[in-house]
């Protein structure tokens, strides 16, 4: 039996660099960023997808322009602009004028929603394109409006066919939350940077945080992958 296994104090020495740091709290912040940003992105991305297939040219043009522009802007630029531009220049406080941490968190969520919604939109639009055109034509023939066709016929089938792509967007969003460190949000990447600066265990610190992100993203991919197969539209 190894010395490490028989001496609990050895394990304490190996992980003593974690003392004094709220690693779980940092990952909890990452989870909150991911969940709130994912919900906002799903709502805004669905609206953008509806605009992109809308019969109104102005709405189609806006949706197309938004997606093409936002997808080609680095996420870091969007997050920094949310902090420096919206907050410092335009005075947007997101309801937290006296709490810098809360303000930075909310602005980060806004930035992630703005960015990720473009990818959600394209995933949903690809699902819309899998629905047979004949279904929409039949619905129009019986007098349904565009909103009724989209909400009752097209989107339910589209969502079922794009669970897999949306899972990939969610996993990417989880990893992208590390960019929030650029504006001082106390999530995992910011704490990792602080620990590397203060401790001499660079490889161990990197391994701990890498494992943390694997724990967050791997179950998400497996569960949503299973759900995608379970709810796949049979044609």
TrEMBL record:
Protein name, per record: Amino acid ABC transporter permease
Claim: Metal-binding is one of the keywords in the record: no
Entry-linked Gene3D superfamilies: MetI-like (1.10.3720.10)
Organism: Streptomyces plumbiresistens
Principal place of residence: membrane
Pfam families per the UniProt record, alphabetical: BPD_transp_1
Domain ABC transmembrane type-1: 27-224
Transmembrane segments: 26-51, 72-93, 105-124, 203-227
Keywords: Amino-acid transport, Cell membrane, Membrane, Transmembrane, Transmembrane helix, Transport
Domain of life: Bacteria
PANTHER family reported for this sequence: AMINO-ACID ABC TRANSPORTER PERMEASE PROTEIN YHDX-RELATED, MEMBRANE COMPONENT OF AMINO ACID ABC TRANSPORTER
Family recorded in the similarity comment: Belongs to the binding-protein-dependent transport system permease family. HisMQ subfamily.
Membrane topology: Multi-pass membrane protein
Compartment(s): Cell membrane
């Amino acid at each position: 039996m190894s010395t490490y296994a028989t001496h609990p104090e050895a394990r304490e020495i190996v992980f003593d660099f974690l003392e004094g740091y709220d690693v779980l709290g940092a990952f909890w912040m990452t989870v909150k960023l991911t969940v709130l940003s994912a919900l906002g992105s799903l709502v805004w991305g669905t609206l953008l997808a509806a605009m992109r297939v809308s019969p109104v040219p102005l709405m189609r043009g806006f949706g197309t322009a938004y997606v093409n522009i936002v997808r080609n802007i680095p996420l870091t630029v969007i997050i920094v602009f949310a902090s420096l531009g919206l907050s410092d220049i335009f005075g947007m406080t997101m309801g937290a004028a006296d709490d810098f941490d809360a303000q930075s968190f909310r602005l980060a969520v806004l930035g992630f929603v703005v960015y990720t919604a473009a990818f959600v939109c394209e995933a949903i639009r690809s699902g819309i394109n899998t629905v047979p055109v004949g279904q929409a034509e039949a619905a129009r023939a019986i007098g349904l409006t565009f909103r009724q066709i989209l909400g009752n016929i097209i989107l339910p089938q589209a969502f079922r066919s794009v669970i897999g792509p949306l899972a990939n967007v969610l996993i990417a969003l989880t990893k992208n939350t590390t960019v929030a460190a650029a504006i001082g949000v106390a999530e995992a990447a910011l704490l990792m940077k602080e620990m590397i600066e203060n401790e001499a265990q660079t490889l161990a610190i990197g391994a701990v945080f890498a494992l943390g992100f694997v724990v967050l993203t791997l179950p998400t991919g497996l569960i949503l992958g299973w759900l995608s197969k379970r709810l796949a539209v049979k044609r």
